[in-house]
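## tool: complex_structure
## caller: assistant
## args:
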Amino acid sequence: MANVTIKKLAQELNLSVGTVSKALKDSHEISVETKRKVHDLVNKLNYVPNPYASSLRKRKSRTIAVVLPEVADSFFSLAINGIEAVAQEKGYHVLIYLTHESFSKEENILKDFKSGRVDGILISVSRETTESNHIRDVQTFGIPIVFFDRVCEEVETANVTTNDFESGYVAAKHLVERGCRQITYLSISSTLSIANKRMEGYYKVLSDHGMKMKENGVLFCTNNEADNYRSIKNLMNNNDHPDGLIASVEKLTITVYHVCKDLDLRIPEDVKVISFSNLASALILNPSLTTITQPAFEMGEAAASLLFKALEKRNYVLKDKNVVVPSVLNVRDSTNLTGTHIQEPEW
Amino acid sequence: MANVTIKKLAQELNLSVGTVSKALKDSHEISVETKRKVHDLVNKLNYVPNPYASSLRKRKSRTIAVVLPEVADSFFSLAINGIEAVAQEKGYHVLIYLTHESFSKEENILKDFKSGRVDGILISVSRETTESNHIRDVQTFGIPIVFFDRVCEEVETANVTTNDFESGYVAAKHLVERGCRQITYLSISSTLSIANKRMEGYYKVLSDHGMKMKENGVLFCTNNEADNYRSIKNLMNNNDHPDGLIASVEKLTITVYHVCKDLDLRIPEDVKVISFSNLASALILNPSLTTITQPAFEMGEAAASLLFKALEKRNYVLKDKNVVVPSVLNVRDSTNLTGTHIQEPEW
DNA sequence: GAATTTTACAAAACCATTTTCGGAATCCCT
DNA sequence: AGGGATTCCGAAAATGGTTTTGTAAAATTC
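## result:
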């Protein structure tokens, strides 16, 4: 199939390329008659404009980048749906990049954006990201950036998060109310703001209730499942094990369930479990899982919407835009008071 | 931050733009001394070449498109990981598009690819897709296409699938061996090859065992959860309900569990359930779920690898490349013989 | 030492589109 | 009728690279 360009259209119609270009954009300086002829030929020859020529000339790519740690998590899956929905509606294209929780990969990916490949960036930083030069660097190129979920506070721009502190507080408080006296918070990172804010909420509950922080009050996990299994098993394989666990991220929940099964620990009788999770299957787990559910789709939508505002209105200031979409607590069997299984009509 | 272009580098160094361009590509006709000076300045000025200028001239975008129904499913989440891993290694960029199971959206998305925006396409067609003109159309533009999972057999190109027929056979056979005599296959589509092949496998088991096909041997579901809940409930709310269910897709499993809970049907005592699923949480469901697990990551990898072969070796023929990555049966409690719960050391 | 090749770079064409500028023809107004 | 505005379009520059062609000087060959 031969490439049909504006030039070919122009030759065929005995018009100049400029005229055809303007006709395609419905410019007022082109007669309706000419526009009609152009459009007829466009349909006949199946002409589709070359986006890269346009991008080059206009210095706009109508493309955004989404940078994620990975899509294994159901949170990011849902967020992608939200982002893509907005982008498709706005006629934008979405480039996706995965850092696999690696800082150097994140650096390399961001570096490329200085090229003008994308008009804007949505990013949820990697677990390893502790400094932000690579991000501020592309920012100086005038490319708007919106953080979602995992933000980087040193960078002055819009953040879309959920109420992490309050959620951590609610999670811990719920466990306390269900009788837990020795709670361990399973963190995924000592640097990620999201993990720390949730942890702060947990700390607040401890101090509010005059519970002193035990040495195993926080367990830092890694991105390696086998390692996490070992450390959680080590935590629980003890007569003095915690009676409440807060999984700060979905993945850890599955490991927790495995450990409990292997150690013959009953949930919720021996240990109550609450998880930050978007698992659709939380309700049909064994036992059903109490969750703090993040509004993943909405956060993706909100982040994309903010970004597009910055792209469409010049001089739109992202800096002080901070959208907080609240998470919700779903109480289920994994934190039930021993012996009293509720049957909620959740469906 | 001012845009630094090749022209700026050239001026600074008193060289021509062509020379700088060649120096950047390590051309043999440029002296080592000049190359060094160019690279020094590149680092100093933080120069990143404009990809669109390059794409325009070279007629290559180093970008591929991934077209998916949605990423709600854990299958597609894992597949994206596989695809992105290969693409990142090859230095390609990945545009992601969601059809949301809509044929017209799929058409619109595909149409844009005639523009040269992408060098190649990975696609898993929507549930509504019954004809393939829109796909063959972009194929005539010389853009290589690889189908994965949900293929379109009328289009002559590479397919990466799992052994759907055999898996359907294995699933049904497993239920028969566990004593099921009245099995219903929950389909997601009457046109999707993947759903039909699995169904064929199921049919084969029926005929092999001299079981005649009941009228409710197959239940066609939709993309609407509430509808599916009603129709599955209707199926099961009957003394003569099936004693075995095959969920052809992950999503339906959760609905099935809900229905059974609401109807007070016990799994596996009253009905055994097997699902095509990649849920990491299958093992900790209530009861744990017997699955046919598709090699999602590997399929994504394989599809991307095939596509890159076609992109890198010209005249590489995709047409007769058919990669079949086998699924595996994971037997768990949801299909257990009544009363004998196994404890598998799966971890 | 003349002819030839090689080296190392410059100049210019090219990719497909957008946009500015200008100009001829037509229309409007008095 | 003449001056100005409007309509409709062409020519050309510009976007930022890549690639082809051209060309001096240096190196090599005979």
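## assistant note: The longest helix of chain B spans residues 74-90. Chain B touches chain A through 61 residues (CB under 8 Å). Handing back to user.
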